[in-house]
Amino acid sequence: MSLESWSPRTKVGRLVKEGKITSIDQIFAMNLPILEPEIVDMLLPGLKQEILDVTLVQKMTDAGRISKFRVVIVVGNEDGYVGLGIGKARQLRAAIEKALIDAKLNIIPVRRGCGSWSCSCSQPHSVPYVVQGKSGSIVVKLIPAPLGTGIVAGSVAQKVLSLAGVRDVWTWSKGETRTTINFAKAVFDALKNTNKFVTPIDWTKKAWG
After folding, report:
1. Contact status, residue 171 vs residue 127, Cβ threshold 8 Å
2. Which one of 185, 192, 201, 206 has the fewest beta carbons within 10 angstroms of its own beta carbon?
3. Angle at CA 109, nearest 5°, toward 126 and 169?
4. Domain limits at 77?
5. Residue 122 falls within a domain, yes or no?
6. For residue 190, what is the domain's CATH number?
């Protein structure tokens, strides 16, 4: 469905379609829920996506064994916004579509900065301070790194962090990191925690321009 033929079903969707909300920052500043993926499509065009994991899962029912595909997808604009989604369906294409919609509905802003004492370049290339995320048995810690360090992490974490716009960071993790879905969730949780409190730099910032 094209955005021109989109018929919003929520208040936020109608405000976006009417042009009264022109930035996704306004939605987060007013703590409004994003319940339609078209909202993200309009306010964040050109989102990139990456499939992190495709797994065949099974469950037993009275009718027998049912097999479904479980897909984990991360989306981001490589400039401070990232979303993680999970979708299940009997057909792979349907599972990917469900995961993509879920990722857009779960999109979050990521606070970036230069929290490394050995850099202090004031550019938003890393995380502003040490943050930690957890999912299942996995704990992930993101540590600010100097400019030019790169993303020192596993392949799953690299994809999530790069789509979030983090270019330089050290990571520390413990737990069963081979479990892709929980590893991705832990990294996503750490990025979400960058917004847990306001720093003095943010005191003079407006909610939107």
Report:
1. no
2. 206
3. 15
4. 48-109
5. no
6. 3.30.230.10
Kindly give the residue spans of alpha helices, DSSP state H, lying in the chain.
Answer: 11-17, 24-29, 37-43, 92-105, 155-164, 180-192
H or E stretch including 90? none
How many domains, the chain?
3
For residue 120, the model assigns a pLDDT of: 72
Same structural domain for residues 149 and 105?
A: no
φ, ψ of residue 187 to 5 degrees: the values are: -65, -45
**Which residues, other chains included, contact 203 with Cβ-Cβ below 8 Å and sequence gap of 6+?**
none
In degrees, rounded to 5, the angle at the alpha carbon of residue 79 between the alpha carbons of residues 73 and 81 is 45
**What is the pTM assigned to this prediction?**
0.89
The number of beta carbons lying within 10 Å of the beta carbon of residue 200 is 6
Location of structure tokens 């021109």: 4
The two tokens of residue 144 are 């600010």
Query: Residue 71 maps to which CATH number?
Result: 3.30.160.20
Tell me the backbone φ, ψ of residue 54, rounded to 5 degrees.
-130, 120
Helix, strand, coil % over all residues of the chain, rounded to 5: 30, 30, 40
| Beta strand 81-89 pairing with 64-76 | antiparallel
Q: Per the structure block, which two tokens stand in for 73?
A: 């997808």
- Show Cβ contacts of residue 58 under 8 Å, excluding neighbours closer than 6 positions: 65, 66, 67, 68
Residue-wise pLDDT tens digits, 73-127: 999 999 999 999 999 999 999 999 999 999 999 999 999 988 788 777 878 899 9
Q: How far apart are CA 183 and CA 179, in angstroms?
A: 6
